[in-house]
Amino acid sequence: MPPEFHYLCDQVEEGILKRVFFISTPIPNYVGFSYNRDVVGKFERKQDNGFEIKGVRVYDEVSKSFIDFEIHISHGLVIGYSTPNNKKISIDINKIDVSDLKIQYDINPLYDKIRPLLKPAYVRSVSPDDVYEVELDGKIYYHLQDLEDGDFIGMDDNGKYYEITHDPYEIKEIS
């Protein structure tokens, strides 16, 4: 991997990955990871956008050919990988081609919509990965940041900020 991604290799070598899981996602042949919580804090970058490392080709012993291998990153953590065109694989880790490596950043149209409304000091602390719509009492709020126990900081279409709690249920405007 290029030097700018050594932090991803470091987290794997330090034991961040606890186990793999196979779930149905829009990403074909996706394999996700669960984490060793004792290691996550050292590598997590909550402000980082998600991205995929594409253009990696690995040798597959099943098909006897090089296949596409994509690595998925969120908040600075390796969250999984996918082999878009191959379901059953057996990778030869000694045969990896990264000569056509590319980075594709995740795009969130809701984040792009609300970004002009964010206060300049708050832009850096809101990750596009965390922005989604929540309808409460017939009004749309944009989730910006988790607090605890399902509570969060939200914003409306007018750029007003709210602390939204569920126990007790309350939508309180904040500055």
How many beta-strand elements?
12
Mean pLDDT: 88
Q: Unreliable stretches, pLDDT < 50, 5 or more residues?
A: none
User: H/E series, N to C?
Assistant: HEEHEEEEEHHEEEEE
Radius of gyration: 19 Å
Q: What is the share of helical residues?
A: 10-25%
Distance between the termini: 44 Å
Number of helices: 4
Largest sheet: 7 strands, antiparallel
Indicate the structural class: mainly beta
| β-sheet strand percentage | 35-45%
What is the subunit arrangement here?
A: single chain
Mass-distribution shape: elongated
How would you portray this structure in words?
The protein has 175 residues and is mainly beta. The strands form 2 sheets. Strands 1, 2, 3, 4, 5, 6 and 7 form a 7-stranded antiparallel sheet that branches. The chain has a 5-stranded antiparallel sheet with strand order 8-9-10-11-12. Helices cover 14% and strands 44% of the residues. A hairpin with a 5-residue loop joins strand 9 and strand 10. It is built from 4 helices and 12 strands. The model has no long low-confidence stretch (mean pLDDT 88).
